[in-house]
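Suppose a colleague, Dr. K., hands you the sequence of a protein chain of 165 amino acids and asks what its three-dimensional shape might be. Before reaching for any lab equipment, you can write down a predicted structure in token form. Begin with the sequence itself:
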Amino acid sequence: MTVRRATKIESEEIARVLRAAFADVERLYIPAAFDATTPGVEAIRERFAEGPSWVALDGGHIVGTVGAVQRKAGLYVRSMAVLPEARGRGVARALMAELERFARGTRAPRMYLSTTPFLYSAIRLYESIGFRRTNDPPHDLFGTPLFTMAKELRPSRAMVGKAAP
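The predicted structure, expressed as tokens, is then:
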């Protein structure tokens, strides 16, 4: 498996991965929230102007994706998704590690994300890599409950004492 930056050309495949990854929990979302969680091809293309995305490939096929938006509060993590058949193989962990390298490289003070309380495996993953729940909004997405998780980033030893780019 490899992780690399995604390109706009892959928007259709990224949209397909998002739909497939969340299909098993679609019934737990309000329809508008599910649509926002699994955006279509055009929305994915537009997101490239807001921030980078990454894909995980296995055998040349995209099996996972994650995106990011740089904000004043830190690096916002969005659209983390792994195909059901690729789960349990470290795909999400590899995507998050790449995202954290990017965040540290931009000197983001923290990484944060919103998730639903019923995405148990994702929550366990986030906690295992240092994310903690906060009281920050948003608390719902079109009526589907949400909570925010954040991971504070400290400069790596290699970065201490270096001037900002």
